[in-house]
Amino acid sequence: MELITGQIELLGRIFLYLLPALPATIYVTVLSFLLSLVLGLAVGMAEISPRKWLSLPAKIYVDTFRGIPLLVLIFFFYFGLGTILNLERMAAGIIAIGVCYAAYQAEIFRSGIEAISHGQYEAALSLGMTRGQVMRHVILPQSIRIVLPPTANEFIACLKDSSLVSIIGLREITRAGREFYSQYFVDFQTWFVVGLVYLIMTLTLSRLVVRLEKRFAIVGYGKKP
Amino acid sequence: MSIIEINNVARRFGSVVALDGVSLNVERGERLVIIGPSGSGKSTLLRTINGLEPLDDGEIIIDGVHLDRNHRQIHEIRLEVGMVFQQFNLFPHLTVKRNIVLPQTVVRRRSEAEAGEKAMMLLAKVGLTDKAESYPGELSGGQQQRVAIARALGMDPKVMLFDEATSALDPEMIGEVLGVMKQLASEGMTMLVVTHEIGFAREVADRVAFIDGGKIVEIGPPAQIFDHPGQLRTAEFLAKVL
Ligand SMILES: Nc1ncnc2c1ncn2[C@@H]1O[C@H](COP(=O)(O)OP(=O)(O)O)[C@@H](O)[C@H]1O
Ligand SMILES: [Mg+2]
Known about the structure:
The complex is a heterodimer of chains A (225) and B (242).
Chain A: H1 2-18, H2 22-47, H3 52-66, H4 70-85, H5 89-114, H6 118-126, H7 131-161, H8 173-184, H9 187-216
Helix pairs in contact in A: 1-9, 2-3, 2-5, 2-7, 3-5, 4-5, 5-7, 6-7, 7-9, 8-9
Chain B: E1 4-13, E2 16-26, E3 31-35, H1 42-49, E4 57-62, E5 65-67, H2 74-80, E6 81-84, H3 96-107, H4 112-125, H5 141-153, E7 159-163, H6 171-186, E8 190-194, H7 198-204, E9 207-212, E10 215-220, H8 222-227, H9 232-241
Bound molecules: adenosine-5'-diphosphate and magnesium ion.
């Protein structure tokens, strides 16, 4: 009995030790993901541009950053570019993740826009809408619904991958876990709690995604006319 | 003055000549039916008339507005010309009513109330008042096409183009769409109709144009084209479809 309460108390202590590092995890995740959204939208739109000088660099971007491990990018942005540009850990970590995730996000945006039939685009033009109006009123409202689920999944993946920045000494929860371990040498319990904290966040998010998907579903969509 | 003047229009796709110097005048209130084999350039002709397809040569004048290679007046042209497609192309994320309201508010800058009233009036006209709050995905093909016609009419076009509006429909739904088109014709709308429905052409058309190889082979009243075609190619085509 005493053993069990002792263990539970230990788990609680680990949890409380991790807590102050939680904002850093959230901060890195949210900022790098926002960066990936903005950059990904730009790259995704460039990819489908009829202008080669836009689409070619965009395709090269996607291929390049999807082909390099995120961990290597983090090293590159912190130890490589970071030393030259004097980047802090936080900035280097956020940029590395953002740049990497933008490559995946660009593909998601591209397919979301391409999924809308060309016929709808032409119908809207024939009604007298300008290209901008077609984008705003016809393409994007539908693309958002298509893009939402995979984007939410990317966000969850991004949250998990934020643990990688612990390796350059950024004190988020994985790093805090390592600190706790090196003080008290309770490896099983430490990593159990660290994993649990991530799991609670990711499970909450994925349940939210399911709700959003239902909310944004289009009636009768995807049915053959 | 003709409402549509098409002068020597050409359109090429690489080595394919889709339109090979087409000239054609359409009068106000005229119903012109265009027939011809697959790949003869019928769709391309309609698409050039509302600027979905650029011109490689020639010019098109619609009610005094010029459309040339530079496409400067393309917006003015599209305001005058409504188009109905084979695949309906309704916006699936909007209700039937919103489909008709949106272009009116965005393009014609009408108020929601005015556009809504017009939408309901048009839905009554195509017999779909009870579907106003449905989504396109909930409608049959025939119903969707009638909504697409109402949507185009919402912009008060002077000319309506129909590109095989009934070709994607199950046979039992063709009649309801042709019915709406006939009603429109009886109200004096200028219409260019690409169709394989010879019965409709006989009943409604003022003139029938037979297109082959990107050229107008023959044009005239339906009785002449269908019963006494002057060209061998026309006769051969009709023998296949009749
Ligand atoms: N976007 C395009 N790209 C290449 N070829 C095209 C394109 N649109 C039409 N064509 C070609 O132009 C010719 C005329 O096509 P179209 O006007 O669609 O014929 P129809 O409507 O009479 O069947 C065909 O040979 C077709 O393959
Ligand atoms: Mg065609």
